[in-house]
Amino acid sequence: MKLKGTREASHADSWYTGDPDTLSDELDDFLSRVPDSIDENALPIPGAKVVIAPHAGYSYSGPCAAWAYKCLDLSKAKRVFVLGPSHTYYLRGCALTRFAKYETPFGDLTVDEDVVQKLDETGAFREIPSRGDVDEHSLEMHLPYIYKRITQTFSSEADYPTIVPILVGDSNGQEEKEFGRLLAPYLKDPDNAWVVSSDFCHWGSRFSYTAYAPEGKVDELQSLNRRTPKPTNPPIHESIKQVDHLAMDAVASGDHNKFVDNLKHTKNTVCGRHPIGVTMAALGELAKDKPEAGKYRLKFVQYDRSSLVEDVTDSSVSYASAYAIV
Known about the structure:
alpha/beta; three-stranded mixed beta sheet; globular
């Protein structure tokens, strides 16, 4: 598959500022709010080459994403895989870009054509339609952060890593494991870093998800509607947090089946469930080959929401950031 053309930064000047100086200052500010150490490790955490971070507009999720990006260790990176869900068209399985470069307000990031070609030759991947690629935000929202962290890590543009954008669409647990096995050698390679794009719970009638745990009983989830009296035990936002943390605990367990089962039970609207699932499966493959304490498991460092829902007419989107040492 011959790559050509540059994917435009289609969400610049809407989801985030397109002015490079203003954007740089904004990202610096977000990163400065994150502590300089986490879990007794100075940031970036050595070996933390896998992160989960959100992909909403920067005014909403930028501060949360900064936690993941300040943890991310790019010191040995020659390429960065970016896995995100498809919001713009129905995708079954995984798909690769056809663009040679991705534009950011800071400059273009080059797609690693050799790796894309090798993945394409497996026959397991589809091609992302050009229009769907341009319209999709789940990959783009990470590129300014990646560019920022690259410039903080490397002094010469000649050393800037390439990127490998992958959309991960609808798939069942077994299919996620198959893609995880296929990608595990790339995750194992010390030259590769890994960014997983996902928001967490999308709550509200506009998302067709109004699950609520009465008295905090998640086993008794019920759907609220406009005729439901305003619940207070707990407030809706606390119920959302509880459902999110069950999903986050499942991810942090390292047990791919546990994450799949959690989502089946709660129906939590984690839009990047499949990129997360594929990454968990790949990490699981590495853990089987070489079990090491403190490695191959995602650890969450930040959780936030766009708003705190009190009434069924409200809505919110949840954001979470995590890292894994490989």
